[in-house]
């Protein structure tokens, strides 16, 4: 099976042919469908006397087909620690004027001087 992929690569200007280096690849389409992502942000539940803020961008997914997005971010540093947030959004929810958004929810990683986790949930930004 052959899948057409388009995108672009960013080359680091300080790398040269003789040294080890890497490039960043940004995909713009998958199998002929444009890719998109969503912003997400919020505040965790209040546990052990504090809460955390978080923000991030989902991983890209194809437009125009049923899909979900993976996401990952790290919370703000509060009460001497931070937590990881990761998961997969729910399916797309259409908007009346076009575009869509996704619901997300989960629990953070365990951390803190009194090990604990926080719950979080929200909606992504609308797609363009």
Automatic annotation (TrEMBL):
Protein name (record): YmaF family protein
Disordered: region residues: 108-128
Top-level taxon of the source organism: Bacteria
Pfam families: YmaF (PF12788)
């Amino acid at each position: 099976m052959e899948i057409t992929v388009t995108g672009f690569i960013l080359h680091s200007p300080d790398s040269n042919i003789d040294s080890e280096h890497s490039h960043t690849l940004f995909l713009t389409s998958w199998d002929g469908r444009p890719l998109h992502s969503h912003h997400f942000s919020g505040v965790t539940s209040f546990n052990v006397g504090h809460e955390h803020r978080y923000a991030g961008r989902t991983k890209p997914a194809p437009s125009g087909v049923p899909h979900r997005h993976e996401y990952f971010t790290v919370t703000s540093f509060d009460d001497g620690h931070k937590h990881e947030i990761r998961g997969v959004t729910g399916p797309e929810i259409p908007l009346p004027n076009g575009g869509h958004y996704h619901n997300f929810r989960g629990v953070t990683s365990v951390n803190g001087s009194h090990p604990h986790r926080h719950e979080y949930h929200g909606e992504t930004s609308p797609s363009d």
